[in-house]
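[Backbone geometry]
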Amino acid sequence: MDALVFGATGFIGRHLVAELLGRGQRVAAAVRNDTLTPWLTSQGVDTGDLTIVTADITRPLDGLPEARDVYNAAARFAFGLDAREARATNVTGALNALDWAATLPGLRRFVHISGYRVSADDARADHAGLGAYEASKFEADLAVRARAGELEIPLTIANPSTVIGPGQYIGLAALVKDLWNGGLPAIPGGRDVFLPIVTIDYFARFLAEIPASPAGEHYWVLDDTTPLLPELIGMIAGHTGVRAPRRTIPAGLLRRLPRKITGADPETLSFLSADRYPTASARALAASTGLEMPPAADALRAWADGLVATRFGAASPWLSPYGYRGVAGSRTWVIGEPHRPAHVLLHGLPMNADLWAPLTAHLDGPVLAPDLPGLGRSAPTAQPVDAWLADLLHPVRTRPALVAHSLACAPALRFAVEHPDRVSKLVLISPTFLQDPRPRLTRSRLARSRLAVPWLRHMSAAHLARALGLPEGPEVASAAADLRRPGVARRVITALRTDFAGREQSRGLLDRVRVPVEIIAGSADPPAVDVAHPVHEIDGAGHYPQLTHPAQVARRLRAVSR
């Protein structure tokens, strides 16, 4: 084989295997369970030159195929490990991999992946005050170097910083999650904390270049231009439309305070450092091979979009592209095709754009589905919703069908009246201005009381599903998660309470619209007002037919298109 990769199912390992296969190499992936092949297939990677071998590096190794280059990407990365568990993979496993590599007659290079803090200060080899994970990595770094020298193995150590990219949800990601959910009152560490990053794509390419470079080098692979932590947090906050904390808490104080107060894992505090790292050799290798890091700010923003899209690892995106856009002064979460959509989908309350996932699976052509301003994952805007919608659709170069649900039907109708040349048709699903003036969510006395906001904010997904008359599912879970974010539940309740004022105006606008209009409603939640436009009722559906009966709604949309 050209290469054998230990730890091939891990975050770094699987991207490394993909990179090597993409370069036409024959790769053996040493795994305990083959979760690698399905992942590679999902990424469109040709696995014809991949060989899967079963191996447990915590035990002496034999029976593996010979390889020219050996990569040890195996590591037990978690905080709160006991020392024995951490050492089994990070120390014993690394030495077992090295001992096996020493038996290879044609070994060109053994590449060991360590860490930027682990190798930063050999004087800390006594591991005093370190958690089990970091202590094991320090021990492994020294042990691997010593054993490689004894066995005369051509060794290179790569010391990456925080590696970011799709599928990375630990470390810095936990800090971003707290920020996004409004749970980061202060930035940990001082204002000079340097928490450098490197993207997984760049690091995988860097690793692939190492075997052709001279042996014996230690490469610190990180972006020296990574903003200091307060600036980094502020940049992500600005991108996602949340408030950045202004205060910092010194690491020394965090160490003295109880964890139940700080919420910080004690093992993470050693990473809150102003240290800089010797990156000259890594930069020289990158320059000689034509590797260029993406701008740190762009990488961090793209990573933040991925974290939000996957609910920090708890869900899978149902459509791409996705991410934050500036719309009418709001950082708006937008899913789908921004320039040439066939359908623009506006969700109702208390949902978000994920409401449209089941319907989109049945539609032809690309869609554009935003979270309305101040709702779901979008930040609020000081401008009227009509100005927001006009700005959202400004880049659109097609005449899409404008499809709106519930309270979103009113601004969609106003846009169609004002801009008939911008939309091909208007589809209103369960428009509130035609229905029972008591939306289901506000029919209870509790929802109309001063306790409405905390009641809604603390709803579980199951409780919200019952309140809406919906089955439990990922779309309701997504809405429930957003309602717990600061301000979202309050804005939902405000919108529900103020919906009544414009109902007569919206009904009057139906007589002025100059594009085809169709109204779709569930048979259990029909319009209470007669209108001159076609109304299609879906048997057995309630207020959310696109969620409960997506195939029937999609058929109706296709019929309207004809």
Notes: Residues 33 and 246 are 45 Å apart (CA to CA).
